[in-house]
Amino acid sequence: MDVNEKYFSNITSRERAIFEGGISMGALFHQFVGTPVNIKTKEGLERTIEESFKLQPAIEDVEVKINLNDNTGFDYISLSGDMLDVRIHTVVDDVKAIIRIEYIEELNYPLMYVEEI
Amino acid sequence: MDVNEKYFSNITSRERAIFEGGISMGALFHQFVGTPVNIKTKEGLERTIEESFKLQPAIEDVEVKINLNDNTGFDYISLSGDMLDVRIHTVVDDVKAIIRIEYIEELNYPLMYVEEI
Amino acid sequence: MDVNEKYFSNITSRERAIFEGGISMGALFHQFVGTPVNIKTKEGLERTIEESFKLQPAIEDVEVKINLNDNTGFDYISLSGDMLDVRIHTVVDDVKAIIRIEYIEELNYPLMYVEEI
Amino acid sequence: MDVNEKYFSNITSRERAIFEGGISMGALFHQFVGTPVNIKTKEGLERTIEESFKLQPAIEDVEVKINLNDNTGFDYISLSGDMLDVRIHTVVDDVKAIIRIEYIEELNYPLMYVEEI
């Protein structure tokens, strides 16, 4: 069976680049929120999130930055969505997209959007 | 700040309907996989997954079916992706989309795709 | 195989009541943190968390209360550990225990402890 | 406030070593089940799980082994409980415990138990 023909012929390459990036961003957030983290484990966790989600369909690259700034008084904290600054790079045929999550001060929550396409 | 104008003017309504549905489908999978479930708690869990993800942006409706068929010998099992049959209905302006996950026999894994748009 | 004899003969009933409650409390926290929730879905989510974790070994009852007090300005928020007030009742032979998580003001984090045994 | 005196004086050091290990084992399972993994990312994920859960109270060491044996036909799979072989070493005062999860053939599921104390 040709999966692409059977299940993805109703959307364009551009739309699929957006779709696969959206899936992986939603997945990444809900998989890792809650993980214990501190300044010493931050980088290892960032790399593991990147490597894990690079495995998903159409994902070319993942860049993860965890912001711990305001949490210095604890031995460790639970990773929350507000700490995530992530770019997921997708590629489908000749279309590339970057899906972003970042905490937006004015909104007071982390927003997922299409940064580049 | 107009969030839509600032962060979403680079994609069409159709693309955003796909994007938001993709996010919620990836999120739903990774949030609930691992939850203890059996035949008695299945319906309550289905309804809670639906209600939780209807809260997310652009989501009009969520239909969740958990397939427990092959797991009758246990008191309970951990929810896995293979058991999920889910439709997420999104609406952005005048565009409606249905994002689906279902286990595909031939692929031997659960596929996420755009069922209708 | 007698699982209890083979794997649990090295601990007392009291210790196992504490062990199973600890497992379920850690599990519950990390399974559900991140779930979208608001005032309308709160009760359904509380009941589903209770029903799901009542399935685990030695769990007699689970009481879940989600505190949303400080989050009234949003359509919904991600469930965090600070919002959880949970009692897990375990029973092993003639021993009963209650494992608790609650946010402790003085500590500024949610603490898991044995409330009664 | 002395947390140990206020919240943990009703259990022995041995009981607390079991309690904290149980919490972390339940937490670890439900945090990471669902994570995309393959042979190339396996080791990084194992190390990140170890480092993350070493942060929790009373945890001295964590050893994680992910068994991928039967999943060679895929680009990647979702981590499931059956693949986990984990030892969590706890220490409270002069008491040491090892909490284990491993897949038990005869039971056909992964069992959590106290391996040594």
From TrEMBL, chains A, B, C, D:
Gene3D superfamilies (alphabetical): 7,8-dihydroneopterin aldolase (MptD)
Keywords, A to Z, come to: Lyase
* InterPro entries recorded: DHN_aldolase_MptD, MptD_sf, MtpD_C
Enzyme class, top EC level, equals lyase
State which Enzyme Commission number(s) the record gives.
4.1.2.25
For binding substrate, which residues are annotated in this chain's numbering? E20, M112
One biological process term in Gene Ontology:
tetrahydromethanopterin biosynthetic process
Instruction: Provide the reaction this enzyme catalyses.
Output: 7,8-dihydroneopterin = 6-hydroxymethyl-7,8-dihydropterin + glycolaldehyde
Domain Dihydroneopterin aldolase MtpD C-terminal spans what residues? 12-115
* Pathway(s) where this gene product acts: Cofactor biosynthesis; 5,6,7,8-tetrahydromethanopterin biosynthesis
Cited SUPFAM superfamilies: MK0786-like (SSF143560)
A Pfam entry, by short name = DHNA
Q: What are the GO MF terms of this UniProt record?
A: dihydroneopterin aldolase activity
Is Lyase set as a keyword in this record?
yes
Assembly information from the UniProt record:
Homotetramer.
What HAMAP family does this protein's entry cite?
DHNA_arch
Q: What does this protein do?
A: Catalyzes the conversion of 7,8-dihydroneopterin (H2Neo) to 6-hydroxymethyl-7,8-dihydropterin (6-HMD).
Please give the family membership noted in the entry: Belongs to the archaeal dihydroneopterin aldolase family.
- Report what the protein is called: Dihydroneopterin aldolase
Q: Which organism is it from?
A: Methanobrevibacter millerae
